[in-house]
Amino acid sequence: MKRLLCIVLLWAILPFQNGYGYDDQTARETLRGISATTISVTYWGRTESEPPGLSIDQVKNNVELRLREAGIRVVDPKEAVRLKHVSAELLVLINCMDYQSIYPCYIETQLVQAVHVEKNDQFTVAPTWSVKRFALLGADRIRAIHDYTKDMVDQFLNAYLAMNPR
Predict the structure, then answer these.
(1) Of 128, 145, 131, nearest in space to 37 by CA
(2) pTM score
(3) What domain range is 53 assigned to?
(4) How many domains does the chain have?
């Protein structure tokens, strides 16, 4: 009964959650002039291992390929420290819980940048652009996370290219 209630509540909430994030004109303006970024793809869940059908390494490779195809230089985090002009990181966060072969999943793609806080004249790191998605997947559909992350990265690239035409 508890499982059924959880599934019904998630299905009621999910349609209103897809596509939420910061992808308005103000967020897009923060993408202007970015020429390079680092990438981080992180999975966290109740277990240490990824669900069957999900490969974090494959997600990261796909994200990196899409960025390079769009003309964005992808640098290693160690190289980014050495290169002072790289102050952006594209993060893909994936969280899935396994409830008897039903996977409620949260996926977020965000660009994090060094930002200046005028109030105290200091620099910090904050997300300046992001999109989020919630999904309820059966074990046989967990591979859909690859498609969702591709769509989210494409949304980022559309925003990026709108501010940085080739």
Answers:
(1) 128
(2) 0.83
(3) 2-163
(4) 1
